[in-house]
Amino acid sequence: MPGIFVVATALEGTLGRSALELVGGARALAGALGLEVSAAILGHGERLAGAAGQLHEVGVERVFRCDHPSLTAGQSDAVLAAVDPIVRKAQPDVVLVGADTVGREVAPRLAYRLGAALATEVMSLAVDGKAIVAKRQVYGGRAIATLAITSRPAVITLKPRAFDMPERAAVKGTVENVSVTIDPASLLTHVRELQSERAEVGLDDAEVVVGGGRGVGGPDGFKLLADLAGVLGAAVGSSRPPADEGWVPITWQIGQTGKSIRPNLYIAVGISGAAQHVAGVSGSRTIVAINKDPEAPIFSLAHLGLVGDYRQIVPALIARLREAKGA
Amino acid sequence: MNTIVCLKQVVDPELPQWDFAIEPATKRQVRTGKPLVISTYDENALELALQLKDKAGGKVTALTLGPVGEVKDAVRLALAMGADEAVVVDDTNAPQLLASDKATILAAAIKRVGTFDLVLTGCESADWVERAVAPFLAEALGASCVTFITRAEPNDGMVTVRRTSEEGFHVVEARLPAVLSVTSDESIRPRLPKVKDIMGAMRKPVQNWTRADVAGGSAAGVAGAQGVEVREVAVPQRTTKCEFLDGEPAQQVQALVERLQTLKLI
Fold this sequence. Notes:
The complex is a heterodimer of chains A (327) and B (266). With 327 residues, chain A is of the alpha/beta class. Chain A has two domains: 4-186, Rossmann fold, CATH 3.40.50; 208-326, Rossmann fold, CATH 3.40.50.1220. Helices cover 29% and strands 28% of the residues of chain A. Chain A has helices at 17-33, 51-57, 76-90, 103-114, 219-232, 240-245, 275-281, 310-326, and strands at residues 4-10, 37-43, 62-67, 94-98, 117-122, 124-128, 131-138, 143-149, 154-158, 174-177, 189-196, 208-212, 235-238, 265-269, 286-291, 304-307. In chain A, β7 and β8 form a beta hairpin. Chain B is an alpha/beta fold and 266 residues long. Chain B has helices spanning 40-56, 72-81, 99-113, 133-141, 195-201, 249-262; strands at residues 2-7, 9-11, 22-23, 28-29, 36-38, 59-66, 85-90, 118-122, 144-155, 158-164, 168-175, 178-182, 206-210, 228-234, 243-244. Chain B is globular, with a radius of gyration of 22 Å. The chains are: A alpha/beta (327), B alpha/beta (266). Chains A and B meet through α4, β5, β7, β8 and β11 of A and α4, β9, β10, β11 and β14 of B.
């Protein structure tokens, strides 16, 4: 009996960080529920070979591997077509899916087909008796909802970066190759083109992030923030207004709607601190806020606050950091 | 092109924090006396539908589920912006429903509206943020599904959409009929209705249905919400105390760099 089933997509040929975070979530439940963890790797290509070993390394014993030419980046319908029969056969109690571009399309549809309970965008998991207790942000991050999931099967999506990478717990596991029949012509959607706007330092993995808000004033201000990020080896992100205004690519957006980040250091520049944004940064270890308004809500979240004009503070900071580096 | 846009009315998400409260009985945000607006991304969905209609003609139907007394403003705004007609499914319990139950009712209402090429929703609601209504609707209606899109171009039984992804965007071709969830983009900023549009909206048809009118009178639930109980909704207390670094920019920056060095962050 598989118990907890992880949908480990490897649509770019290898397992992403999100897939491993799912294993972290699965292990949080497995012990308390007395269930085993299994996983299905979905993808295509030679590089897939190493993925099962990666899962064994973090304690997943039973691994299904599904290699099909349709299982490539963004192909939600192919993933659904592959996962549906595997899950039906394995009959798990809980299916964990990453709340990423593909996962958020696949998970509700899978839940619908299985007649399963659904909880999405979950940030923590615990067990209380027979119930799975899931917490998630609601109201643009202003509140946290605690959900008790009592029926089975349950499909749960985990918010990327909410769960730690699992600790090493190597097991000697098994791998079963699963063949699925996917007729590309029968799929209702087809990804024609992938466009990447990925910056030099990605927001997902950055240890230091510089974020800009409406107070930055326009695209030129973000050039200054990029200079600061350059000195710090940081990634640049934004709150919602700059992304909405088209000052920065939408992929830079951090918050309830955009990405969640948990860097060691987050420097918020010209960001008022709307709940929508706070939802995505509150896990940062140290938060520095630079804002001209001393009453801005961001200061109730920040550890260190600098009240003033960022156009003066940021260039001074860049110069001081360069000096410190040179020393 | 016949498009049905699902609109949800929520308490204005821009309300200041001190005006935000959870009602213990319903475990939802207090609505009484608060300003209600169309949920952020739902307005982008409506704008996209109207732009498609401006280009290629067709009909736009605004569909909303909620207490009939509360959704009037949303319906009026949608019609003033340019929707041709509106359908309201009256349900006083709607603000408490989770995505799967909402989707069941909406799917039944859509079937009653009739044939469609596109169903558009916001990518997430400003309140419960489940991001699940569009995929549920696609399954219930046997339609294709793409979420978090910003552009759509219908062409010969297909619709080509631009989907926001982690790294950038995907260009996806979806077969019609399709259910698409829409996120914000400068190209679909909601239009402001003119006075004459607001007047004209008064004459546009609005149908009021009850829950019994849709779903063949049965309130049968579907997958999803059974087995999920909202135990608690709590407002987290912030415990951080901000240390302000005062002085001229040079002094502030000096203090900051020293602190970051002590914390071994740089």
